[in-house]
Design brief:
This protein has helices at about 5-15, 20-35, 40, 60-65, 135-145; strands at about 45-50, 70-75, 85, 95, 100-105, 115-120, 125, 130, 150-155, 160-165, 175-180, 185. By secondary structure, it is an alpha/beta fold. The chain has a single domain (about 5-185), classed as NagB/RpiA/CoA transferase-like (Rossmann fold, 3-Layer(aba) Sandwich), CATH 3.40.50.10420. It has a 7-stranded mixed beta sheet with strand order 3-2-1-6-9-11-12. A 3-stranded mixed beta sheet has the order 8-7-10, with helices on one face. Strands 4-5 form a two-stranded antiparallel sheet. Strand 1, helix 4 and strand 2 (about 70-75) form a beta-alpha-beta unit. The longest helix is centred in the first third of the chain and has 16 residues, at about 20-35. It is globular, with a radius of gyration of 16 Å. The two termini are about 15 Å apart. The mean pLDDT is about 90.
Length: about 190
């Protein structure tokens, strides 16, 4: 089992070697796999991250959701200390939020429920375990409204980010699916849970 700090180190080292062209091509493959899922096609509301430079790029995924008439929400700072889901519309201006991550300028809070939530991470495992960036932002976003027990949680990553087993803590929220540039599959149930 890989602990969180080791997982972050392994993936950070690998990410530092990625060429922009490879990131674009692998992102396109991963997003096509995700967009082909029936749940994605049928969702009314999709929660999705706006990618940083070395994450799976989600622009095409968001465009496809808009083209289907789906409502899209993205994480954004909504108060001095908190994050929430805000609506994101085509052509809406973006500003740099905390950690330089883009977020809509003046977006309205998303009114739920979110049917599918696409989640980034540092690392995942085949059991839906997720190692984030260490601030617990997505665990809080997934635990509160407009997400619910019925929200399908999908981890989106490059194939090298899926490790054999990552350490999860009781507050860590597991993914239902893991989608990468080379695979899309539902999370398995761990035998020791």
């Amino acid at each position: 089992m890989t602990d969180k700090s080791e997982a972050r180190q392994l993936v950070r080292e690998r990410r530092s070697t990625l060429a922009d062209g490879w990131v674009r091509e692998a992102s396109a493959r991963a997003c096509r796999r995700l967009d082909a899922l029936q749940a994605m096609q049928e969702a009314h509301t999709v929660g999705c991250y706006l990618a940083s430079r070395m994450e799976v790029q989600t622009d095409a995924l968001v465009q496809a959701a808009w083209a289907r008439g789906q409502q899209v929400g993205v994480p954004a700072r909504v108060g001095p200390q908190g994050y929430g889901w805000v609506t994101y519309m085509p052509g809406q201006p973006l500003v740099a939020g905390p950690m330089g991550i883009l977020q809509p300028e003046g977006g309205d809070c998303l009114v739920g429920p979110v049917d599918v939530c696409v989640v980034p991470g540092v690392a995942f495992d085949r059991y839906g375990g997720r190692v984030g960036y260490g601030r617990g932002i997505y665990d809080r976003l997934l635990a509160g409204a407009p997400c619910s027990d019925h929200t399908l949680r999908i981890g989106l990553a490059f194939g090298f980010q899926v490790l054999d087993r990552v350490m999860v803590e009781p507050h860590d929220i597991r993914m239902h699916w893991i989608v990468t540039d080379d695979n899309a599959r539902p999370a398995e149930t761990p035998l020791d849970d």
